[in-house]
Specification:
It is built from six helices and 19 strands. The protein is α+β, with helices and mostly antiparallel strands and 288 residues long. It has two domains: 144 residues, Probable inorganic polyphosphate/atp-NAD kinase, domain 1 (Rossmann fold); 135 residues, Probable inorganic polyphosphate/atp-NAD kinase, domain 2 (Tumour Suppressor Smad4), CATH 2.60.200.30. The strands form three sheets. Strands 1, 2, 3, 4, 5, 6 and 19 form a seven-stranded mixed β-sheet that branches. Strands 8-7-18-15-10-11 form a six-stranded antiparallel β-sheet, with no helix packed on it. Strands 14-13-12-9-16-17 form a six-stranded antiparallel β-sheet, with no helix packed on it. The longest helix has 11 residues. 36% of the residues are buried.
Length: 288
């Protein structure tokens, strides 16, 4: 039986053409058929267009973390494992690097890998009358921020309708454990093991000393109200897509029922990536 592989890639990386040529050559020999997103269909050898999650049994993303997040969003909750191939520098979420792909692909074909389930957020804007507006999915984080305005936002945050706190800040990050090493970390949030489901609330530059990042159980529903706001408050999901909150609207964030499944190979643990990519706990090794 043929296994269907979807391929999503970022054309800005030098190694993309090499990986695509490798897949065209090796995938059929392992019993795989290939479907490509529209941007990769410029070669006659790549003729099957990837347009729906139900076309594939697994997804390969070629680029960096942003490309993997885009691939996860394309799947829209489908139960499909994702193999992220890092063609850039950081690639914290990816499964392997460009130089390791041939070995990793052979291991994947033999079934020598693990699949980690990663929590995903669903956010939706809600009017004062209770009307639901735009819905967003995020694997890393949902951020409420002021865009280009110089003034701060005055916000109130609720968890299951209980007031968590009211404060002024440049914004707030609601992150998954996977996203704890992204924007939340830069804003002073904690690092959380990616398989420990939880909601992380990290204020961005709060105007008080009596406010710290907060970790909530994953089944809580977080609601954010913005008071005395500029005409438009921005909401972004994974830093890639977004919407805005108008007057009288709030934002509700909860755990999605449909996680993302990331492929992991031996030797690519969370803490090994922390040490290699972010220099976590590396002083002893550096000073040897």
């Amino acid at each position: 039986m043929t296994t269907r592989l979807g391929v999503i890639g970022h054309e800005g990386y030098d190694g993309l053409s090499d990986i695509l040529a490798f897949l065209a050559r090796e995938a059929p020999a392992h019993g795989y058929s290939l479907a490509y997103e529209a941007a990769l269909l410029d070669d006659p050898a790549r003729s099957v267009r990837l347009s729906r999650p139900d076309q594939v049994d697994a997804l390969i993303t070629l680029g960096g973390d942003g490309t993997l997040l885009r691939g996860a969003r394309f799947l829209a909750g489908a139960d499909v494992p994702v193999v992220g191939v890092n063609l850039g520098k950081l690639g914290f979420l990816t499964s392997c690097g460009h130089e390791e792909f041939a070995i990793a692909f052979a291991a994947f074909a033999r079934g020598e890998f693990q699949v980690q389930s990663r929590m995903v957020l669903e956010a939706e804007s809600v009017s004062a009358a209770g009307t639901v507006g735009v819905r967003l999915r995020a694997m890393n984080d949902v951020v409420v921020h002021k865009g280009g305005f110089a003034r701060v936002l005055r916000m109130r945050i609720f968890a299951d309708e209980e007031l968590v706190g009211a404060f002024a800040a440049d914004g707030v990050v609601i992150a998954t454990p996977t996203g704890s090493t992204a924007y939340s970390l830069s804003a002073g949030g904690p690092i959380v093991a990616p398989t420990f489901d939880s909601l992380i609330i990290t204020p961005v530059a709060p105007h008080t000393l009596a406010l710290r990042p907060t970790i909530l159980p994953p089944d809580r529903v977080v609601r954010i109200e913005v008071d005395d706001a500029p005409d438009e408050v921005l909401v972004t999901a994974d830093g890639q897509i977004g919407t805005s909150l108008g007057a009288g609207q709030s934002l509700t964030v909860r755990r999605s029922e449909f996680p993302v499944r990331l492929v992991r190979f031996a030797g690519n643990s969370f803490f090994s990536r922390l040490r290699r990519k972010l220099g976590w706990g590396g002083l002893a090794e550096r000073d040897r």
